[in-house]
């Protein structure tokens, strides 16, 4: 995979050093180096092998809860068995280097790897595979333990319990997404890493950042629909780019 050109890293370095507020907006491609399959990449993309309406939609869950539960549980097992990669660790290092700035992670990923790598300010706009909640939002939440192998009724209200993540056909958590919008609009530098910008409304965040004056940097080995609209479109893997960026920032 090509490493980012030194000239582009140097230009981006300058923008990061001048920035007060930085956002890293991440998608499944960031976790690819951890061995977690992306959703739409070539033949390995998860959605090339299963129908998301069957295994990851609210309509599918209400129709066949066990099918959705089983599919998400196998994804949880994979996430629990793997770990954050050099890209996650470099982004956590970026937070340390930029201690005098505000660095926000806005992630579409449900694996919890940013927090495990050490980032503190993480907005999980699609929720998390590590938590369960009552579908009726009565207030019941619980850590999803691996022995919870099948759907069960809410102990508080009897409603269905489901993973605390956004299934297809569901709205995002309004409070979380409002925070993500605000951070995007206030960002001076907005990194987009490992996303195909396929799913709304999350895919709008970089455009809102750009229209509010942020420098938008895309990091992806392949071009995306946003590549022509960003300031820098870096053809690189996440681990290589963010490791190079932190190495250069460390040599102030
Ligand atoms: N580094 C950076 N980017 C990578 C890497 C890598 N090592 N490997 C792959 N990519 C890129 C691919 O080129 C692709 O553009 O990551 C992107 C992954 O795209 P998707 O699989 O569509 O994942 P994502 O954009 O996160 O999907 C958004 O869709 O299915 C829903 O809720 C799910 O959050 C997900 C949302």
Automatic annotation (TrEMBL):
This is protein acetyllysine N-acetyltransferase. It comes from the Bacteria. InterPro entries: DHS-like_NAD/FAD-binding_dom, NAD-dep_sirtuin_deacylases, Sirtuin, Sirtuin_cat_small_dom_sf, Ssirtuin_cat_dom. Pfam families: SIR2 (PF02146). It comes from Candidatus Accumulibacter aalborgensis. The active site is at residue 126. Zn(2+) binds at residues 134, 138, 154, 157. One of its GO terms (molecular function) is NAD+ binding. Residues 2-252 form the Deacetylase sirtuin-type domain. Keywords: Hydrolase, Metal-binding, NAD, Transferase, Zinc. It is an enzyme of class 2 (transferase). The keyword Disulfide bond does not apply. The keyword GTP-binding does not apply. Gene3D superfamilies: SIR2/SIRT2 'Small Domain, TPP-binding domain. Its EC number is 2.3.1.286.
